[in-house]
Predict the 3D structure of the following.
Amino acid sequence: MRRPRPALLPLAPLLSLILLAATPTAHAADSPRRPATASTAASDDAYWTAERMTAARPVTGGVRATARATAPAADPPAPSHPFDGLPQVGTFFWTDDTGTGRSCGGTIVRSPHGNLVVGAGHCLRTPKPKRHLSFVPRYHDGRKPYGLFPVERVYIDQRYYDLGTDAGARWDYSVVQVGPRTDGAEAQEAAGGFDLGVYPGYEHRRVRLIGYPGTDDATHPKPLDCRSATHRYTSTDPAAPGDFLEIACAGYIGGTSGGPFLERSLTGYRLIGVIGGYHTGGDFPDISYSSYFTGDILALYLHAVRGDAPAQPR
């Protein structure tokens, strides 16, 4: 089977990667890893039936899931609508320590090995066991149109582990290494990928926001799609400091965490954020946030490309 050509990153991120490559590995300790075998992919694929995927619940509910009030924002909320999704955007599924199915959004990014997915840090931060942890591109209506890819390693910034979801809100993202599906195809080969946009700026006139809403009962059958402007939001909560991307899109209730902020680029789209960050994505369903992508996410990306041992809770 033909393998994809190595992706070309924009010049600034490429230079940053070269500089990072010359530095010592930040995560030197050994960490658990599920080997990418055909049997693992087959086992997870068999486990995640349509019934189990549609019954999966979001990682967190809280205010976003039930709020009816609208928070003030620079722009009125743009409308959202359900659709069948994009091949590069999908859902992580796993079962938690109680046996409950969980879900959270993710996006395939271009990489030399074609096996990296970016999501929200708060979704995968907990050290509790996660069984059958897998990624399904373009999940909708209980379907796996591009198959299933078992998760091997999760890369989260050590500061996010140490500080928690509020004090560490600036690092609420993850780079996830996934194994091939049952036929040996890598995620990027099967479904494509987007460029990772680093230091993208805050002011954008038209950004596409995609999210998989969910309730305490189940994940909705289709993702939401919306286009709106983004702005800089400086936190007024001393417990959750930082500057974040803000976007006004209606109806992004709990479960949309990890969904991508996508901006048009010469190669299609580039990923400039994921729903998370400030209050793990916001307090209201019509306003969503993302941690700002800096060289810190580039460092995670490089560690994932090299297959370094990830940071761990301590």
